[in-house]
Write a structure and sequence with these properties.
The complex is a heterodimer of chains A (about 120) and B (about 120). Chain A is mostly beta strands. Helices cover about 0% and strands about 55% of the residues of chain A. Chain A has strands spanning about 5, 10-15, 20, 25, 30-40, 45-50, 60, 65-70, 75-80, 90-100, 100, 105, 110-115. The termini of chain A are far apart. Chain B is about 0% helix and about 50% strand. In chain B, strands 2, 4, 5, 6, 9, 10 and 11 form a seven-stranded mixed beta sheet that branches. Chain B has no helices and eleven strands. Chain B has strands at about 5, 10-15, 20-25, 30-40, 40-50, 55, 65-70, 75-80, 85-95, 105, 110-115. The chains are: A mainly beta (about 120), B mainly beta (about 120). At the A-B interface, β5, β6, β11 and β12 of A face β4, β5, β9 and β10 of B.
């Protein structure tokens, strides 16, 4: 069975600094997708960034970037120039292909990130 | 484009009752997935509907059921509510097409409290 592990339940960072959230996953599949979602206190889950396993290049979205290490099954999220609005729960998620379509998301337990002024 | 909407946002029920939650996907999305979020178990997949058919199912008892209508709107039903069903229920929609790098977009959730 596929599993996703986030080993840091809570983290904090000073505004404008950089922070890295860790995620590891376990799968025997070769074709899959990885995601980072953000869930602010308002509860709306928002996609932060997506990585296709077949792509070697790490995904980036503005201040957010990932370090995808396929062999190590590691998928960390780096947030640069942290802002107060980045305060949220961050979930790492994994999905495979079933019959060519993406299946359900398997989530880690989340990392609660606090950005301090 | 409007996002995923869920109604109601909050519900309070008592044990033994049943409840129906509704989800309207993003226009053009044909796949709707449901997730249960609790502090203890985290986010767990309930089921996915695509073109009015259940395409995938998680490990939940038969008290949890769902359906999808021709306009892609989806409902989930929980019968004989138990205290442990108290949770945030999230709906997510996506295109659901094969051979396409897809992304699930989430609604704001329905907070269900069972007393």
């Amino acid at each position: 069975a596929q599993t996703v592990t986030q080993s840091q339940p809570e983290m904090s960072v000073q505004e404008a600094e950089t922070v890295t959230l860790s995620c590891t996953y376990d799968t025997s599949e070769n074709n899959y997708y990885l995601f980072w979602y953000k869930q602010p206190p308002s509860r709306q889950m928002i996609l932060v960034i997506r990585q296709e396993a077949y792509k070697q290049q790490n995904a980036t979205e503005n201040r957010f970037s990932v370090n995808f290490q396929k062999a190590a099954k590691s998928f960390s999220l780096k947030i640069s120039d942290s802002q107060l609005g980045d305060t949220a729960m961050y979930f790492c998620a994994f999905t495979m292909l079933y019959g060519g379509s993406q299946g359900n998301l398997i989530f880690g337990k989340g990392t609660k990130l606090s950005v301090k002024p | 484009k409007a996002g995923v909407t869920q109604t109601p946002r909050y519900l309070i029920k008592t044990r033994g009752q049943q409840v129906t939650l509704s989800c309207s996907p993003i226009s053009g999305h044909r796949s709707v997935s449901w997730y249960q979020q609790t502090p203890g178990q985290g986010l767990q997949f309930l089921f996915e509907y695509f073109s009015e058919t259940q395409r995938n199912k998680g490990n939940f008892p038969g008290r949890f059921s769902g359906r999808q209508f021709s306009n892609s709107r989806s409902e989930m039903n929980v019968s004989t509510l138990e205290l442990g069903d108290s949770a945030l229920y999230l709906c997510a929609s996506s295109l659901g097409l094969a051979g396409y790098t897809d992304t699930q977009y989430f609604g704001p959730g329905t907070r269900l409290t069972v007393l």
